[in-house]
Specification:
By secondary structure, the chain is mostly helical. The protein has one domain. Helices cover about 80% and strands about 0% of the residues. It has seven helices and no strands. The longest helix has 29 residues, at about 30-55.
Length: about 150
């Protein structure tokens, strides 16, 4: 689904698909909650990728600097849930950006957002919807037992 959306817009979809895979959570609420952490973390990884590519080109040193800078920044900003996606974003961008750095930065943030917010949330809602019936049934039974003991 992520690849189709990005392809229809004309954007590269590899990073969006990777993001969708690693950001699927057990519930839609968790996906959305963590998206607010992962988005700025991805922006950090993408920004470091653009900066180091501009300064050094694509070299082994660039990969190392992007990964280490991203880890340190996410740690300092307490964006722990977004560190993996941020590293993947930064490192994956190195091979596909050679000019138009700011436009590439914006497109990568958009594609990872499609993968993260739209696709993983839709998967949680449509494909793997949460089943609260057993939990609700158990809580009703416990409440009934407590009420009967009080009465």
């Amino acid at each position: 689904m992520t690849a189709l959306i990005c392809k229809s817009i004309g954007w590269p979809y590899m990073l969006a698909v990777i993001t969708a895979i690693v950001t699927i959570e057990p519930t839609a609420a968790d996906s959305i909650k963590k998206a607010f952490i992962r988005f700025p973390a991805s922006a950090i990884g993408a920004a470091f990728a653009m900066l180091y590519t501009f300064l050094l080109g694509v070299t082994p040193l660039t990969y190392m600097l992007v990964a280490v800078s991203t880890i340190i920044s996410c740690s300092k900003l307490r964006l722990h849930a977004g560190t993996l996606v941020a590293k993947l974003t930064g490192v994956a961008m190195l091979t596909i950006v050679h000019d138009h750095y700011f436009i590439s930065f914006l497109i990568r943030l958009a594609t990872t957002s499609i993968g993260r917010l739209l696709t993983s949330s839709l998967v949680n809602i449509i494909v793997l919807p949460p089943n609260y019936t057993p939990i609700i049934t158990r809580k009703i039974q416990n409440l009934s037992k407590q009420m009967s003991s009080v009465l």
